[in-house]
Amino acid sequence: MRKFLNALIFSGLISCPALAAQPVFMSGFEDLPLMDGLKQFDDGAVAFDAPSGRIVEAYAQSENVGRKNVLDFYGKTLPQLGWKKGKAAAASASFTREGEELTISVDDGTPATVRFELKTTEKD
After folding, report:
1. How many angstroms separate the CA atoms of 95 and 29, rounded?
2. Within a domain: residue 13?
3. Residues 6+ apart with CB under 8 A from 71
4. What is the 3-state secondary structure (H, E, C) of the chain?
5. Is residue 60 part of a domain?
6. Range of the domain at 59
7. Domain tally for the chain?
8. Which of 49, 86, 82, 56 lies closest to 71 in space, CA to CA?
9. At 66, which CATH number?
10. What phi and psi values does residue 108 have, to the nearest 5 degrees?
11. Is residue 114 included in any domain, yes or no?
């Protein structure tokens, strides 16, 4: 009986949502998740704030994640965060939300480089 209770407690701890890994977000962005397998450049981010809007640019790389995986991940994830799909091309996708446009471009080299650019699209 004791083994059963220990196993039950252990399995409960493993599946406890509070102990699950927390999502990692791109620095410089409020709620842009960093896809598993991507690593953000620590010194590659640029941010400009002005009365007319803002521009944020950041980069991430991966040795084992390709263009299709990146664009599929963000195409499924960002609409859940309120982003609407915009223009798409073979190597990029764009999304809009609350007067801002987010463009994600992927250079499918080795390693793959992902560029995230956020800019204000309309004035308040």
Report:
1. 14
2. no
3. 88, 92, 93, 104, 106
4. CHHHHHHHHHHHHHHCHHHCCCCCECCCCCCCECCCCCEECCCCCEEEEECCEEEEEEEEEECCCCHHHHHHHHHHHHHHHCCEEEEEECCEEEEEECCEEEEEEEECCCCEEEEEEEEECCCC
5. yes
6. 22-120
7. 1
8. 86
9. 3.30.310
10. -85, 45
11. yes
pLDDT in tens, 38-72: 999 877 778 888 888 889 999 999 999 999 999 99
Please report, rounded to a whole number, the percentage of residues in the chain having pLDDT higher than 90. 50
Token pair, residue 102, equals: 């987010």
Q: Does residue 5 belong to any structural domain of this protein?
A: no
Extract the tokens encoding 51.
């009365």
First to last CA, the chain: 65
Q: Which structure tokens are listed for 61?
A: 């790389």
